[in-house]
């Protein structure tokens, strides 16, 4: 029994690692086309970001692999594959619930990570990206990666979700993780600076977190930042 669990953990680590390389590599290419020279002279930092991110892939991959094994072999989790097991309107709702729960967890653990002790131990790694690049998406110390790695594996035991909806959640997670660190805004002005942008987080919001540190802690939504008075608005891209 131990071998299949280990293999599942290894497979998931590979999937997370390759997913990271493809997503960050793709947006790195987009950056080179859209903003030539933006990452000029940042080779050393990028190599460090890739190193920490690949280590994080293992931290994310192991719990996910164990839970995936239990889902397939022991009937663990509330992940379902029959699309009619719940009403169809529940599909988008479940995606929203996962994103809201992940966002809430991230906001509060991220604030904790900015307390001096935790910052020194773990979060300084993520902020060593100055400014971040598309490769910084998973550039976390393993202690911090651990706090992120347990969210989705825990949620699948608590909130039912269709396997495809879970795929949507993971895609949003991957794309936003990369684009928020890319150093330029990929989303249209009408969205970022319009009514929806008052509640959604894109690169313009997270860039300011990397510039000023003690503000804009959220992941997907500005709800917690606005409620707790830590929202410092949208930043610019100085380079
Ligand atoms: Zn960041
Ligand atoms: Zn931070």
UniProtKB/TrEMBL annotation:
<dbReference type="InterPro" id="IPR050307">
    <property type="entry name" value="Sterol_Desaturase_Related"/>
</dbReference>
<keyword id="KW-1133">Transmembrane helix</keyword>
<protein>
    <submittedName>
        <fullName>Sterol desaturase family protein</fullName>
        <ecNumber>1.-.-.-</ecNumber>
    </submittedName>
</protein>
<feature type="transmembrane region" description="Helical">
    <location>
        <begin position="161"/>
        <end position="179"/>
    </location>
</feature>
<keyword id="KW-0560">Oxidoreductase</keyword>
<dbReference type="Pfam" id="PF04116">
    <property type="entry name" value="FA_hydroxylase"/>
</dbReference>
<dbReference type="InterPro" id="IPR006694">
    <property type="entry name" value="Fatty_acid_hydroxylase"/>
</dbReference>
<feature type="transmembrane region" description="Helical">
    <location>
        <begin position="50"/>
        <end position="69"/>
    </location>
</feature>
<keyword id="KW-0812">Transmembrane</keyword>
<keyword id="KW-0472">Membrane</keyword>
<dbReference type="GO" id="GO:0016491">
    <property type="term" value="F:oxidoreductase activity"/>
</dbReference>
<feature type="domain" description="Fatty acid hydroxylase">
    <location>
        <begin position="95"/>
        <end position="230"/>
    </location>
</feature>
<feature type="transmembrane region" description="Helical">
    <location>
        <begin position="6"/>
        <end position="29"/>
    </location>
</feature>
<feature type="transmembrane region" description="Helical">
    <location>
        <begin position="89"/>
        <end position="108"/>
    </location>
</feature>
